[in-house]
Amino acid sequence: MKITADTNVLARAILQDDAGQCRTARKLLADATLIAVSLPSLCELVWILRQGAKLPKEDVSGAIRALLDTKNVVMNRLAVEAGLAVLDAGGDFADGIMAHEGKWLGGETFVSFDKKAVSLLTKQGNAARLLS
C-alpha cells in the first residue's frame, strides 16, 4: 500500500510512548510500499520531538535523516536538507523549510522578525532580511 503518513503515525513510531499505537504505526510503515511524508508533517514532527519530547537537536536530526534515507520514504529531499541545515546550526527546522520553499516559489529574500533565523540563513548563503 502507498500511504501518506500523518505526523502522529511518525511520532508514535519514533517516540514509542504508546505501545499499541507504536506497534500499529511501525507495522504499517514497514509494510507500506511507499510512505509519502509532507513538509508540514515533518515540521510538526520536529516540533513534537523538540518541544514536547524535549529531545536534543542531534537526536531529532538523526531521526529525520533516518526517514530521509529509508528506501520506501519519499519527501522533498532538498527542502528537508535545508531544514536540517538550519536545525543542525541551532535554529528551527521550519525556518529552513520556509526559506527553501519560498525561494522555490520565486521569493528572493526571506524576511522575518526572528533575528536568529535571519542570522543562520544569512550565514548559509541565503538572502535574508531582519525586520524591526
From TrEMBL:
Q: Name one GO molecular function term.
A: DNA binding
Query: PANTHER family, alphabetically?
Result: NUCLEIC ACID-BINDING PROTEIN, CONTAINING PIN DOMAIN-RELATED, PTHR39664
Keywords for the protein's UniProt record, in alphabetical order: DNA-binding
Highest taxon of the lineage: Bacteria
Give yes or no: UniProt keyword Protease.
no
Q: What is this protein called?
A: DNA-binding protein
Q: Where is the PIN domain?
A: 5-116
